[in-house]
Specification:
Blueprint lengths: L1 E5 L8 H9 L4 E6 L11 H9 L9 E5 L11 H4 L10 H13 L12 H14 L6 H13 L6 H17 L7
Parallel strand pairs: 1-2, 2-3
Length: 180
Amino acid sequence: GLRLLEINKNQFEYITDILNYLSNRGLKFIIFLDDLSFEQYEPSYKNLKSALEGGADKKPNNAIFYATSNRRHILSEKWQDKTANYEGEELHGTDAVNEKLSLSDRFGISLTFSKPTPNEYIDIALKLADIEHINMPSEILIKRARKWEANQKGLSGRTARQFIDQLKIEEKLGHSENND
């Protein structure tokens, strides 16, 4: 009875209609918002804010929102938002900052994935290699994982995943890097 519905930013203007439709379906829904972020000039986040906690229309009990974002606060912020007001800027600067933070606050629980330590990165790569049945001695895999990370954008679970994906491609093609 659980369904997943992915909605993107250009559908937020219809979010109230979508929620009304889902409320009468007799199923439970996770409404998934992938890679959610907004620039200051994008007003559609206000539609989402109302939908998350219910505006005039109550949010249905059979729907919950899940979102991923690379931004902790979802809305872009500028240094000028935190500094003293200048001519032509908003009189109540704190209100502007609070408005931006209020969207991420409405999601309730936040899970943050911080940058792993070098040893954690290796642990992630080894575990993924095990899951994917990569047939390689661990000392070679560790050496290659470190080399891969040095040529990428740094330590992360995503970097480890991409490394393992590369190893899977090499296995399918029947070769691996010879300069280990």
